[in-house]
Amino acid sequence: MEFGEFADAAAEIEQLSADTEITERVTSLLGSATDDLPVLARFVQGRVFPAWSSETLDIGPNYCYEAVARAAGTNVSAGDVEARLADVGDIGEVAASYEFGGQRGLAAFGSGGDDSALSVAGVADELAALADAEGSGSRDKKIDILFGLFNRASPREARYLARLVLSEMRIGVGEGTVRDAVASAFDVPVESVERALQVSNDYGEVARVAREEGEAGLDAMDLELGRPVQAMLAQAGTVSDALDEWGEAAVETKYDGARVQVHHDPEGLGWAGEATADAATDGDAREVAVFSRNMEDVTDALPEVVEFVEAHLDVPAILDGEVVATDDDGDPLPFQEVLRRFRRKHDVARAREAVELDLFAFDCLHAGGEDLLGAPVAQRHERLDAVLASGVADLRITDDADEIADIEADALDAGHEGIMLKDPESTYSPGRRGKNWLKRKPAVETLDLVVTGAEWGEGRRAKFLGTFLLSARVGDAGDEFETLGKVATGITDEELADLTELLEPHIRAQDGQEVDIRPEVVFEVGYEEIQESPTYSSGYALRFPRFLGVRDDKDPEDADSLERVERLAEKQ
Q1: Tens of pLDDT along 54-78?
Q2: Top-confidence residue, 342 or 395
Q3: Which residues contact 274 (CB under 8 A, 6 or more apart)?
Q4: Residue 270 pLDDT
Q5: Residues 274 and 298 in one domain
Q6: Which residue, of 399, 424, 440, is where some domain finishes?
Q7: Are residues 60 and 160 in the same domain?
Q8: How far apart are CA 559 and CA 551, in angstroms?
Q9: pTM for the structure as a whole
């Protein structure tokens, strides 16, 4: 399929408002695909790579601005592109406003010198080459590839190419839309598509299997060692909620750590990221891979977790758990200490000396060749106990509220965050947040909010971003946000430097001291009260907000919703 056809479809979808109409148009798009079906299933969501893959384009907005400027002509600079973006607010509209195709010469067409029409598969190949560019000269190579693509693009193609590159597709197509469209396009049960997506986390592959192998092929799809799936999620709840609904509850400690998914195969993993592929080439395939909550490969940053799993696990397995920072006495340290390790790419050994991590596994998704997603909590925990010799979180099943209160008190006394309550009969549903898992914390409330803007500081803090605009998620897609306050309290100078380094690559536009930031980073924020307020677009404002930390383990779609903010405001 030519990329222009995809752009035309995206433009039509963007004009639709009814969910059914959007699904029908995506169904038509997928049904007309050829070998590029897997790519289309991702592109229409604004994805370049499969959801399970930790591969990224690794480009900041400035790369895109420079490539657009070069393709637009010698009289256009990256600053001009950024200034126009500040006026219109959409990089797609900015890219579409220029006439491309006039730049010729040896470097005019990126890596191939091709001036033919863009195709969906060709764009995917070029973006994959862009992602692979590393080391000295990689910046120029990435910009050259983008320039070559924009230089061959029509205005409409440029609109959606720019949005795709910066993960800002915003045409109203979410995961549920693609799921339903795959089922409709290839006449397979939506339940089979849903299950296949849960075990594969790959919309492109599921679409291909649905078309070529039908319902039987989808039902035959299983978990793959080394390929992460989304974590099952919990919602806030009470002991009475749990016992009233289930009769009894499985109770676990809620650790103040970072969620991880551990994959282990004594024969060597075949999927787990570039590091595994490189190791396999050298004849030494990795046995253990560790993924964060948002499925980033963090194996290299957590060597003690790898060593622990290698020492205590003998069979192929996929485990769900938390890594917790501990002191010399084995007592838990604050969550922020864990995140210092997750960010580490260099000097890992030295960081390990400063902060040691322990793994607490609480669930087992696969063991010894058997997928366990459909097994109840209690059975999965029995398998976990059977395969892992140490590091298994305690699980107690009870119908006694007083006993649960004692378990919670012990957890808090030990320095942990609280307790988890789980329906003992519940299955494991990747990516789902439902009433089968409830998290109970002490009464102090916090919110996980997305940073969508900031202001440069003054005086000695002038080189740092010092005040941060916070927004709550609207809906489930993770691409719409409403503001509800700013935070500047509780942040040290050292933290300001780290936060500025973290957020600068996501700056979209600047107006004086104020900057507009792509919604990529999540803050944990404490507060005294939620008030109704016309100052912010949500209609609410946080009273005395205080910065508690960066939630590196959360994506914007995992941040707290405006619906939760409204519920909390009502309870006050």
Answers
A1: 888 988 899 999 999 999 988 899 9
A2: 395
A3: 55
A4: 67
A5: yes
A6: 440
A7: yes
A8: 9
A9: 0.75
Q: How many CB atoms lie within 10 A of CB 490?
A: 13
CATH classification of the domain holding 267? 3.30.470.30
Domain identity same for 99 and 54: yes
Q: Are 181 and 207 in contact (CB under 8 A)?
A: no
- Is the pLDDT reported for residue 109 higher than 90? no
Looking at the structure, tell me whether residues 409 and 357 fall in a common domain.
yes
Residue type, 28: S
* Residue ranges making up the domain that contains 533: 446-571
- Burial class of residue 485, CB neighbours in 10 A (0-12, 13-18, 19+): buried
Within a domain: 280 = yes
Residue 463: Cβ-neighbour burial (10 angstroms; 0-12, 13-18, 19+): exposed
Please, what sign has the CA dihedral across residues 564, 565, 567, 571?
Answer: positive
pLDDT at 572: 67
The CATH number linked to 75 is 1.10.3260.10
Out of 254, 422, 486, 554, the active site residue is: 254
Helix (H, G, I), strand (E, B) or coil at 517: strand
Q: Are residues 465 and 420 in the same domain?
A: no
pLDDT tens sequence across 399-453: 999 999 899 989 988 989 899 999 999 999 998 777 899 988 665 578 999 999 9
Instruction: Name the domain boundary from 165, 180, 208.
Output: 165
463 part of the active site = no
Q: Are residues 434 and 452 in the same domain?
A: no
pLDDT at 284: 56
pLDDT digits (tens, 9 = 90+) for 342-364: 767 778 888 888 888 999 999 99
436 and 452 co-located in one domain: no
Q: Give the mean pLDDT of 29-52.
A: 96
Give CA–CA dist 121/65, Å, rounded: 24
How many domains are contained in the chain?
3
Greatest alpha-carbon pair distance for the chain in Å reads 77
- Mark whether 332 and 450 lie in a shared domain: no
Give the phi and the psi of residue 231 in degrees, each rounded to 5: -80, 145
For 316, list phi and psi in degrees, rounded to 5. -60, 135
Residue 182 counted as domain residue: no
**Non-local CB neighbours of 140 within 8 Å, separated by 6+ positions:** none
Q: Are 341 and 351 in contact (CB under 8 A)?
A: yes
